[in-house]
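Q: What would this chain look like folded?
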Amino acid sequence: MSNVVQLDPPDNRLHRIHPQTMALVEEMKSYAGFVEIMQHHLSNVCTETQSAAEDILGQALDIEGSVTSLVRHVSDTMQSDALMDASDTLQLSVSTGRSVIADLIRNHSETQAEIRHSLSTVRALSHRMRAHLDEIEDIRRYTDLLAINARIRIASLGSNTGLDVIAEEIRALATQTGSLANNLNVELTEMDRLVGEDLLNKVSSQKHSDDAKAKALQDSFEKLSSHMALLNQFQAELIGQVQQRGEEMRTPLNTLCGSIQFQDVARQQLEQVSRALSMISDHFVSLSNAIIHDDAPPDSSIANCLASILENYVMEQQRAAHRGEAAATAPKIELF
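A: My prediction, written as structure tokens:
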């Protein structure tokens, strides 16, 4: 009787349990505390991983939304009517400016040609006036000869004839005509110098200066047109690059979101492990109670527990692991 433990159950029935059996019962009862601790750990893992996955998923979706919004904003901005109108207006202004400059250069060239033609006309007129001066000089010499002949005639006729006054007037007229011809010759010479040297040189110098400025202005418009073409090319490349980078980021983000969503599968697996541990704990408690109270074994066996767990699996990989099959037979991605 020393090896028998007497228990006082609730119904006051006397049970005789062997000490080793009682120790086994106590050990079986301790499984409940162990399983409860493990369940707490699994619950914490599920909660923390789910919270972290939800945060990462939310951030990934925010990034995708921001990238999509940025791509749309850049595309809309670069293709907006205002920007396109501004670009077209600037291009039209450049074309108009180039046309105006071409007209100015053409008009300037025509004006230069007219000025040169007028100067040539003035020089030709000067040459004709010199020819007339030669005629005046001939008249002066002829008048001077008349004055000399008149003096000779007066000398042969004697004094007090009154012809000496006429001879003196003729001589004075010849002198005045010579002075006038000389003065006109000096003025024409000065005019030839002004036309031939000063005016033509100034016109030529102004033409070279205007041509240089017009060329510089044309070069500026050419560079502006080239830069506008480069800007349009850069704009098109920027839109293409933004769209390409957006598409490149979309695939990794989608993959990341899919990977994070599979975390829910891992959470379900941990929850199933937790339920399995709870079932085993309950089963051990039922067995210990049956031993203590000398009752029949519980209806649910370990095999029934495993069958119940198998029915709740959501992935073929879990079923394969349960049946002890090769995990490689399950696909990497499953639809469930």
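The mean pLDDT is 71.
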